[in-house]
Amino acid sequence: MREGISGAFKWALVMNILGTVMLGSSMFCNHPLLFMVIVMGGVGLLGCGFLIWLKLVLQEALGTTLFR
Amino acid sequence: MVWLLAALAVADVLLIVAIIQGWMPMGGFARKLIGFVVLGLFPLLWGGAAFSYNFNRIKNVEFCATCHTMSEHVASLKIPDETMALSALHYQNNYVPQETACYFCHTNYTWFGPIQGKMNGIRHIYVYYFKGPPEPADLHIYTPYNNRDCLRCHGKAKRWNTQPMHNLRAGFKDDILSGKQRCLDSGCHQDAHLTASKIKARAEEDW
Questions:
Q1: What is the rounded (10 degree) CA torsion for B58, A41, B5, B26?
Q2: ipTM score here?
């Protein structure tokens, strides 16, 4: 049921994928600059995905829109 | 460990692609459960484990050696320890863990020491790319090496305390303990790393 996925939820999923790929590839990277960039990017994207999900959960629990 | 983390990452990505593509039913409870696992638990547990793995991996000498500027310093770990160069002496006699020798000596033993070490790593990258890579002979640490980092291991050792040079005069040992007299000063333990550049420069001086 693709239509069941909201825009924000989809964004959270996409950020999770990108963050996972970046942080996962950093485990095999030995180039210092590239390593730093992909670790920071990966952690940032995973964190953003997590925060969007948290916002959706809180919205559903509280029955209100947060950070409009 | 790394392959387990990689397998979990692939599983996570496949699961998310299946959700987005609508290969899986996503009604009510299933949506919440998958959302909780994929977006709630996974970033915290897997992300934490992957970050921790990386945090430990970059402590290894091999990672320091990936920067060509450090090659002479890394090579100096393996010169004959009879030269009494501190790095070779500590590395070859396993006074510091061989796998993480760079990190062991170049991280402050304070509460935020490891974080400060990582910040220094970022500073190395800034210096390398924005100020140009320094010649191995010109490499130096940003702040003078702190006696505290030597004395953490040596300070309470009988061998260090009874060493005649450390009791050269009254109050000398106190000067070392307070940092007034630096361990790495000329005439004491001046050769932290005996690099090829340093050996060459000394040979030219002697000539």
A1: 170
A2: 0.84
